[in-house]
Amino acid sequence: MTRLHQQLLYIAALASATLLSADALNIIGSSGGDTSHKPITTNNPSRRNFVHQFGLIAAAASSMPTMAANAVDAQFKEVGQQERPPEGESPFSTLPNGVQIKDFRQGSGSTVQNGSRVELTMKGRLLNLNGVIFYDTKSNDPNGFGEGTPLQFTVGDKSVLPGLESGLIGMSRGGIRRIIVPAEVGYGAFPSLEPQPLTDVERRALDSVVKNPRRDQTVMFDCKVERLK
After folding, report:
1. The overall pTM is greater than 0.70
2. Binning pLDDT at 50, 70 and 90, where does residue 144 land?
3. pLDDT tens digits along 45-103
4. Which residues contact 114 (CB under 8 A, 6 or more apart)?
5. C-beta of residue 136 within 8 angstroms of C-beta of residue 219
6. Could you write out the DSSP letters of every residue in 180-203?
7. What span, in angstroms and rounded, lies between the C-alpha atoms of 103 and 169?
8. Is 205 a residue whose pLDDT tops 60?
9. 84: buried, middle or exposed (CB in 10 Å: 19+, 13-18, 0-12)?
10. CA pair distance 119, 44, nearest whole angstrom
């Protein structure tokens, strides 16, 4: 139960208690203190409206956990949940090392190979945390224009996760690919390799998974090849 949920329920309960107290005082005042034969009522139109409004608040508060869960489920589907692929077919191709790839846009020109110098704009997400972002090249924005700075490296120089490198092979400039990297060729085995989080929030998100052996350390990257040499 969230703090907001608790607060809304408390307000509704407090409002109901206040109404009951007001009714009791009103009955006592009109009967000279004898309440033995006076039932508490809410026939007053404004009082009924008040009760109705706070009843709606309580109902909304009680439904918040379900709404939040549905939002999380929707977000997880958007970032590549694979339990329900379209028409029973897996939307990803699986490489020998367990990396899964899916192309969203084909590029043009030469392709990424071992030794290629690449520049990528990309986002990294934690599948264990329903797609929470732990890396975004737009976070590296020293000029403040919102464009970010691409990740640059040479394929095969061992500076980047081997699972990410293998997933990039065959891409061309302008191509967009989703790459799912298991722990064995990702942060589970190579926690210090690039890409590394660029903000404190992103760092805490990644650490919460990488430093917890009980969590699935599979990550997903959405990558676009900006430059290729």
Report:
1. no
2. confident
3. 555 554 455 455 445 444 444 444 444 444 444 444 333 444 545 579 999 999 999 99
4. 155, 156, 169
5. no
6. EE-GGGSTTT-TTSBS--SSHHHH
7. 12
8. yes
9. exposed
10. 70
